Amino acid sequence: MRNVRMNTRFLIVVLTLLPLMMLLSLLHGSAALSLSDLWSGSDLTRRILYELRLPRILVVMLCGGLLAISGAVVQALFRNPLADPGLIGVAGGAALAAVAWQVVVSTTLGAGLLLSAGMPVAAFLGGMLVTFLVIHIARNASGISSLTLLLTGIAINAVAGAGIAALKYVSDSMTLRQVTFWLMGNVQTASWWAVLLLLLISIVFVPMLIRHAAPLNIMLLGEQQALLLGINVVETQRRLVIITALIVGAVVSMVGLIGFVGLVVPHLVRLINGPDNRFLLPMSFLSGALLLLMADLVARNVAAPAELPIGLITALIGGPLFLFMITYRQRGRGIC
């Protein structure tokens, strides 16, 4: 009963803060607006609201929610609350492919709509290629080895980091600036097309992940116990790894690398409300949307009219918050 009350209160807080943060994000930025401008502003004001800020807000919320729920699934799958979707190498592979496209293809052939649209496609394909490579290496007779999966992901991330550094070294100053900004999270180019794509991904894959909440709860007991209780561990692992990889690859292809959301948000929700994935997964989605929306609001206003990369803000928020949670647990709430 206590957990139900706590979960209800947490849900009410998040659902109250989300529309409030959306309203603040609509009104505040390099050009401050008033409430009356939302309905009766000038043509320029309406363009700012409906062509720039609103699609950006929706993209940020969807990306935050998708990263957070992916992090919650990965942590449950590996039975490790310190796991992160980026550990399996998807984000690194997607980033390497996107940077290679930007440095090699776009620089060689010049700018254009087709070339600009090719960057997210390259990132998505790079993430998927890495996913299937990692699964192939980690698969054994008894299924997918979690340890091998993580170690392979770490190795691929190291290779991808070296490749990105080499491409940045040979790029010109303008391309280097664009690549560096994209690698820290770039939501300035958010569009209604991106909103539609991320919304479609959310509608398709988020319910699929939530439906796996009960099997994930059982798998927290260990693979042998899950098998005895009738869970197809191998198929569940394979399906969830592919779904989370698809989600992370799509997010990275849209907005670049945004760290700490998939690590900190599920950890925070679990710390407050417990490890039950039936509540953890949907609340991680909502809390991730809220956290990234707050980070974007800070990024747009703290140095206005200049704008900071959103990934820089998530690192500044997520790093200290994660250290606080670790310290809090060590002082009497168990181990991480």
As laid out across the biggest beta sheet, the strand order is 1-2
How many helices in DSSP terms? 14
Strand content: under 5%
Low-confidence stretches: none
Mean pLDDT across all amino acids: 82
Give the total of beta strands.
2
Oligomerization = single chain
What is the element string, with H for helices and E for strands? HHHHHEEHHHHHHHHH
Alpha-beta content class = mainly alpha
Q: Based on the coordinates given, report the CATH architecture.
A: Orthogonal Bundle
Overall tally of domains:
1
Helix content: over 70%
| CATH topology grouping | ABC transporter involved in vitamin B12 uptake, BtuC
Radius of gyration: 20 Å
- The first-to-last residue Cα distance is 24 Å
CATH H-level superfamily = ABC transporter involved in vitamin B12 uptake, BtuC
**Text of the CATH class:** Mainly Alpha
Give the biggest sheet: 2 strands, antiparallel
Gross geometry = globular
Structure commentary:
With 336 residues, the chain is mostly helical. It has a single domain, classed as ABC transporter involved in vitamin B12 uptake, BtuC. Helices cover 79% and strands 1% of the residues. The protein has a two-stranded antiparallel sheet with strand order 1-2. Strand 1 (139-140) and strand 2 (143-144) form a beta hairpin. Helix 4 (90-109) packs antiparallel against helix 7. The longest helix has 35 residues, at 43-77. The radius of gyration is 20 Å and the shape is globular. The protein starts with a helix and ends with a helix. The mean pLDDT is 82.
